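Thread title: Can someone regenerate the structure for this chain?

I was given the following input by a collaborator and told the matching structure tokens would be attached. They weren't. Posting the sequence so someone can regenerate them.
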Amino acid sequence: MKQLCIDRNAVSAIVITHFHADHFGGIPFFILDAQFFSKRREPLTIVGPVGLAECYERVMETAFPGSSKATQKFALQLVEVPAGGSAEIENATVHAYQAIHGPADGPYLSVRIETEGRAVAYTGDTEWTPGLILASREADLFIAEAYFWDKEVATHLSLHTIEENLDRLSPKRLILTHMSDDMLDHPDRDKYECAVDGMVVAIA
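Best answer:
Regenerated them for you:
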């Protein structure tokens, strides 16, 4: 974010789908940057699965012992939302759906964020589940993991599965992310819009 000159203080809310390090491990660095470098003063909201408060303290203490108890100069709100539930944050609504990405108690979510008449959906990490249809239906943007091309494995989606269900998912725009070497090296990847670092997405 620094390299791309992104104003971190302009980020008012962060939505977390689950607590694996590649999805949650950047939080301590964002918080420490807000405290000591970007000098944040505006409130920050983090929305995530049930257990967010406990996992936030754990990840902060793992990364920087003592940091979870440090006094901050900005208000931090941790909002927990269960699968099947919704949370209101500022002028947006976050809808949470059950994802399947490991042990049943996870917790793992797919999300749909609605604001100003627009909807953005994100699979998180998950194998196929009908809840993805509810999350993505008529979404202005659907961000979907495509870990493999056609290999079906527990806990992750393949591009083949997305293609088989695309009519039911019915997003207005699809962007693929979270790709393994199998997908990154596959020619079919070029048929789709794929996420890259620093990508700016405008929703008409």
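The mean pLDDT is 95.
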